[in-house]
Amino acid sequence: MGESLSDIGEKEILNRLKRFVSSGQISDDTAEINSLGKKLLINTDVLVEGVHFDSLTTSPSDVGWRAITANISDLAASGVDQLIGVTIGLIAPPETPWNWVEELYVGMKESLRPFQGEILGGDCSKGSARIVAITAIGTLGPLRLHRANAVPGDWIVTSGPHGLSRLGLALLQTETIVQSSSLSNELKAKSIEAHKRPTVPMQSLKNLITSKPKDLPWRAAGTDSSDGLLEAIKNLCESSNCQALIERDKLPTNPEWPLGKLWEEWCLNGGEDFELVLSLPPSWAKEWIKINPLSKAIGIMRAGKPNIFWANNLQKINLEVDFQHF
Asked: pTM of the predicted model, to two decimals?
């Protein structure tokens, strides 16, 4: 028997699939199409029951909301200007209640409303598990964010705090650590909302475009932190052949975020925060931070073999993720 997907891992799967895909189209989460004078961004994401959601912590409408958010977040991290719409692939066991499907679509419509996007169609089939596959289409704005655009000397900046979604999941699952922690009701509510109904920092992207100093070219690197802050930085480093120095005392957390190893780990690797993680020229980063109140500079890019280090002692930061695609 040959290698399994779990033997190979996601990175190698993507590397092997490159021979079937146009050059450069698999290096980001979105594809780019230049058609009829307009550049389009297209992205597909899949949510699988038992892997990405379960009925104990996620209602059908929240599944729909998160499915749309995950896709639009990838589009935003590539520089989308306007969302056109989405197509939906749905797989569900035949015994699935209609109410579950109806609420799923209610959540998707609610998530699409702020972006004025439409449901364009899709397909459905029976299967052994509930699976929601979304393909989102949008137009490209003036700034094409690529993971491979980082250069030494850039500042590493984020659009908002990290770790809230992971804390929200822990609260919903009544994990022991959060039950014994002294957390404010406001932080608890904000974290649960961040997990169940995450938002896309579209205004942060608009601010990024308007804050660009006139003397700079449209060159910036970006991705989103849906798979975790460290994973996002790692992707920027590997795609741009740079290494990152991160300031430990400048990690992007909520003002009420507790101190400690676990809480630092959730900030770095919790995932599903859907914030922009960018590598910008310092002057651009400064202007963006001025008008984007939740954004924060957390480190710099420098020349060297792709790795991530703490800036104060140059100790390598290990990537310890809670979730693996395979």
From this structure: 0.88
For residues 240 and 279, the answer to whether their CB atoms sit within 8 Å is yes
The whole domain housing 36 covers 5-140
Radius of gyration of the chain (CA): 20
**pLDDT, tens digit, for every residue of 147-162?**
999 999 999 999 999 9
The answer as to whether 326 is a domain residue is: no
CATH number of the domain encompassing residue 12: 3.30.1330.10
CB 100 within 8 A of CB 66: no
- Contact (Cβ atoms closer than 8 angstroms) between residue 295 and residue 204: yes
Q: In angstroms, rounded to a whole number, what is the distance separating the alpha carbons of residues 208 and 305?
A: 28
The maximal CA–CA distance of the chain, rounded, in angstroms, is 60
pLDDT-derived band of residue 126, with 50, 70 and 90 as boundaries?
confident
Please give the order of strands across the beta sheet that includes 118-126: 31-35, 38-48, 131-140, 80-92, 118-126
- b/e per residue 176-200 (b: at least 16 CB within 10 A): eebeebeeeeebbebbbebbbbbbb
